């Protein structure tokens, strides 16, 4: 796992272990190096990862380098954020957003 902005990177190879098999819910950012909004979102995700460390794992997946997982979950735009719990996607959000809004959406997804 490669870390960017304090957030671990996952790949097609380790997605099953790191995301689907994780004991905590996982927020996955589907991202790309060329994506401006993805770069804007990186510090927000870093802050959320630190604040929610005991409740939520945050990872990034590069869509260009990992097409298998990207296609499997129907990701068409970056950034796409998906919350996985017990190996299943429970929420999906497209586009950058401020920290407060992201935390509200995460609270809603995690309390389902």
Automatic annotation (TrEMBL):
InterPro entries membership: Thioredoxin, Thioredoxin-like_sf, Thioredoxin_CS, Thioredoxin_domain
Residue stretches making up the Thioredoxin domain: 1-111
Protein name per Swiss-Prot or TrEMBL: Thioredoxin
Entries under Pfam families matching the protein: Thioredoxin (PF00085)
Disulfide partners: 35-38
Organism (species): Streptomyces inusitatus
GO biological process terms, semicolon-separated: cell redox homeostasis
One of the record's GO molecular function terms: protein-disulfide reductase activity
PROSITE patterns: THIOREDOXIN_1, THIOREDOXIN_2
Superkingdom as given in the UniProt entry: Bacteria
Keyword vocabulary terms for this entry: Disulfide bond, Electron transport, Redox-active center, Transport
Annotated signal peptide: none
GO terms for cellular component: cytosol
């Amino acid at each position: 796992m490669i870390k960017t902005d304090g957030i671990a990177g996952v790949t097609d190879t380790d997605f099953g272990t790191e995301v689907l098999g994780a004991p905590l819910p996982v927020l996955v950012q589907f991202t790309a190096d060329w994506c401006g909004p993805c770069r804007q979102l990186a510090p927000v995700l870093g802050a959320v990862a630190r604040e929610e460390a005991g409740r939520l794992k945050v990872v990034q997946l590069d869509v260009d380098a990992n097409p298998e997982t990207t296609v499997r979950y129907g990701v068409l735009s970056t950034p796409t954020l998906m919350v996985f719990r017990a190996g299943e996607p429970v929420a999906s959000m497209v586009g950058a957003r401020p920290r407060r809004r992201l935390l509200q959406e995460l609270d809603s997804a995690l309390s389902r």
